[in-house]
Amino acid sequence: MREGTANIVRREDYLAPAYWIRTVDLTFDLDAAKTIVASKLFIERNLEQMEQPLRLHGEDLNLLRVLVDGQSVSFRHEDGMLVIDAPQQSAFTLEIRNTVAPEKNTQLSGLYASGSGLFTQCEAEGFRRITYFLDRPDVMAVYTVTLRGDKQKYPVLLSNGNLLEQGDLDNGRHFAKWHDPFRKPSYLFALVAADLVAREQRVRSRSGRDHLLQVFVKRGDLEKTEHAMNSLVASMIWDEHRFNLPLDLERFMIVAVDDFNMGAMENKGLNIFNTKYVLASAATATDADFDGIESVVGHEYFHNWTGNRITCQDWFQLSLKEGLTVFRDQEFSMDMAGSASARAVRRIGDVRSLRERQFPEDAGPMSHPVRPDAYQAIDNFYTATVYEKGSEVVRVIHTLVGQQGFAAGMALYFQRHDGFAVTCDDFAQAMADANPYSPLAHNLDVFKRWYSQAGTPRLTARGEYNAANATFTLYLSQHNPALPGQNDKLPQLLPVAVGLLARDGTALPLQLAGEDHAVGTDRVLVMTEAQHTFTFVNVQADCVPSLLRGFSAPVVLDDGLTDADLLVLMAHDTDAFNRWEAGQRLALNRIRAALNSDAPAALDDAFIEAMRAVLNDTRLDPAFKELALLLPSEVYVADQVTGIDPQRLHSVREAMVDQLATALHAEWEAAFAANQVRAGYKPDAVQSGQRALANLALTMLVRHASLTGDTVWPGRAYQRFKDASNMTDRLGALEALVNSHSELAQPALDRFHALFRHEALVLDKFFMLQGRAPEKDGRVFARIKQLMQHPDFTLTNPNRARSLLFALTAGNPAAFHRTDAAGYVFWADMVITLDTLNPQLASRFARALDRWTNLAEPYRSAAREAIARVSAKADLSSDTREIIDRALA
Ligand code: ARG
Ligand code: ZN
């Protein structure tokens, strides 16, 4: 499969398959060294297609035999496919026998070994690494699967659907036979053979049906599955309640595995999860980990409808299921969070991650539309664009048609397409048809440009108050930047949620010219063209516009607001997202100014006082305060500036954080004291907000101590680290010490390691925390290289590899981007090493230099040289080749 030549798949070339596979009967003789796969397929020729040979995908397989209707036939291998001349009959049975070697499968795609168990990952194209097949999502079949294996090694044998039979065989072996009544594409197939135990719960759905929920983990991990099970039950209730979508299975299983390339996988009835998104206890997992479990369990569960019941016609439509399912899991998490403020906190988190991951992607060499047009390796397109921007695009629909209209659109979507493999157009059409009087239906073609145009739209807004007429005129214009291959871009459909605030903070009623009365103080303006002018009338006072409330469209906004305007929004906006945003904008303006000057960075009193006011404001929730007090990250700022010098940015931002630590010392002390949680640990929004603010306060206090030489706060942090009763507090205290390069950091790290050396997920934190500590004199980078030699470090476990490598490249720009280029040399070495082990992991890591053309010298040239060095390797995987080629294009 390591091909040197670029093999590009194009959306416009889509053709329905020449054959349909109706039923699949698989028998596995499981063994880590050599598993025998016997496959019996009932196939029908697609009479709408020209008669042609049967071409089956297959990769890294050892073929033993091929029979058509019981007779041997001739076959050949062509372009990595198994080709069988068109059988005479239009319907026939194909029997294939082949073997695979799970323990040699370090790619973790297909059937592979993790610990002493066997697991599968088939999305996107892993099934062809198990047996020859039409491995494409529009070929849907009913599967019956028999698993046979050693009973001691593999006491648990699982596959999709319902268990039909199980029993003993000779030689200490046993078997289990599973049947999945739902037609499904091969990417949703799964099997597990391992020594596992399960937490079980029986639940009755609203419809009165009984279901068995199971969460399978390794022996000893059972007590860490309660939160995952609760999240699963909550997901079930939520989907029935919000969308009328009940669980359609008698049995729903989640299996946790240590070695996994991604977060989790929605295989029908048998979700396979990275342990990171299943296992949690107060002692070993942080509040963020608990939230991650809730959202990923929700995400995979929601796929059962959006993804499995209706799947994708081809992989270009990936966002059909991923964008929609991310939208659903984000809504679920917001509903679970409770209060309006807690919802806003979730929204801010989602937008931060969109801006830090998707915006740079959309401005770099991997920029692609939510529905891509071409790929070399589909695994490279499980991106922030397809997932997070895809979700924002679904949210645009939601904003345009409202919550009820959206539910009606979902109902129509299922009524039309349940059981089929469809396209993004089908989804948008159902939403529009269910809401015929909405701006979506009126502008469906404009809306669909979100699917075809890449890049982040720029929205410019200018307002003009006319006191004599009591009008406020808002001039909105959008610009969709040209990108390679996408020049003449058309305006997009942008819902712009707005409010107007008088300078004293009062929310003004909103009445547009031509309307006979005001419609509330919060409304949505819809842009469909490059320029629009909106005139508000009866505006009794000069005002500040609050635009794009709740981040109503995934754009970059230039609203031209002054510091004074932003301070009004920051103090008074009823939209919590924009309150937060105003503070971030004030900070960003200051960081920008400092980057453009040679003077030492300094924050002005107005900004510091505004931050003090936030910390002192008793009406604000701690979780919100924590987010508001964090300066925009280096990753985000780097994307907002052209020709970035990461070292200068780091020193500017660090100096500003030092200043906030010093100037607000008293407030930090007060915030730390006021936010101690006395009640028993609960990972809910209220407690976790308090812990987050207390941890930030502690970090600031220890930082301040490192500036003054004071030893009291480092000592307190160490004590808190030792005494903490939960991981959030323990890690927060440890991080405060490590991030300020305190002398107590090393003893604390040693103690942390000793305490948790048997907890894989906590060891990941041990590495990650050191990998993302703020760089100081090159010490952090040196530490990372040292840690690569740590006995607990390994590149073969994706979580562990990510904990150190991705912490450096994605979380620590100043450690990575060095004037001596050592970071890039290290990167190139690692890409090359990882690529021989696990191409999906390697190509993900390779993306760390996506934005190299945006770097200032000397970084830029050094980065180019490192990329060229990787490119010179002749035998890169197609995954990594695609990333590197695009970076150099
Ligand atoms: N469908 C899975 C999810 O979103 C992720 C599969 C990722 N596959 C891949 N090849 N990267 O839950
Ligand atoms: Zn998904």
Give structural notes.
The protein has 889 residues and is an alpha+beta fold. The chain is built from 28 helices and 32 strands. The protein has an 8-stranded mixed beta sheet with strand order 6-5-9-3-2-12-15-14, with no helix packed on it. It has a 5-stranded mixed beta sheet with strand order 17-18-19-21-20, covered by helices on one side. The protein has a 4-stranded antiparallel beta sheet with strand order 10-11-16-13, with no helix packed on it. Helix 3 packs antiparallel against helix 4 (340-363), helix 10 packs antiparallel against helix 11 and helix 25 packs antiparallel against helix 26. The longest helix is centred in the middle third of the chain and has 34 residues, at 384-417. The protein is globular. Bound molecules: arginine (ARG) and zinc ion. Arginine binds next to strand 20 and helix 2. Residues 228-435 form the Peptidase M1 membrane alanine aminopeptidase domain. It is an enzyme of class 3 (hydrolase). Residues 455-558 form the Peptidase M1 alanyl aminopeptidase Ig-like fold domain.
Provide a compact summary of the structure.
The protein has 28 helices and 32 strands. Helix 17 runs antiparallel to helix 18 (712-723) and helix 25 packs parallel to helix 27.
